[in-house]
């Protein structure tokens, strides 16, 4: 598979996980102070772990999935705290996908 195809799959999976599979409750309650049903860290960990799983499956490298999980958590936390808006949040996420592909290109 070519690197552009991997990048496209990573970006498509990202949007599925961020907008299709993330329900309204998770989108709100993953932010500190907005948690009602579960502590916000559980919502955030579940949401970001799904992103990590997608990256691990698509790239075949679980360590990249773990990196995605951690970085996605940090990016979403920043958005929840109001450090940047949804547009910047999505730009940061797409940039990470580009980093994963660059890492693949360098290691394969």
Describe this structure in words.
It contains five helices and no strands. With 108 residues, the chain is mainly alpha-helical. The chain has one domain. The termini are close together. 26% of the residues are buried.
What is the first-to-last residue Cα distance?
A: 12 Å
Structural class: mainly alpha
Helix content: over 70%
Could you say how many structural domains there are in total? 1
| N-to-C series of helices and strands | HHHHH
Largest sheet: none
% residues in beta strands: under 5%
Average predicted confidence as pLDDT: 95
Q: What kind of oligomer do you see?
A: single chain
Number of strands: 0
| Low-pLDDT residue intervals, each spanning 5 or more residues | none
Q: Number of DSSP helices?
A: 5
Radius of gyration: 14 Å
Shape estimate: elongated
């Amino acid at each position: 598979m070519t690197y552009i195809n991997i990048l496209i799959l990573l970006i498509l999976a990202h949007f599925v996980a961020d907008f299709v599979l993330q329900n309204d409750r998770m989108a709100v309650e993953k932010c500190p102070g907005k948690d009602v049903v579960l502590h916000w860290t559980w919502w955030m960990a579940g949401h970001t772990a799904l992103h990590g799983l997608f990256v691990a499956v698509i790239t075949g490298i679980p360590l990249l999935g773990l990196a995605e999980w951690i970085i996605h958590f940090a990016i979403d936390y920043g958005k929840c705290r109001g450090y940047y808006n949804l547009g910047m949040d999505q730009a940061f996420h797409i940039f990470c996908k580009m980093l994963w592909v660059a890492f693949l290109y360098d290691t394969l």
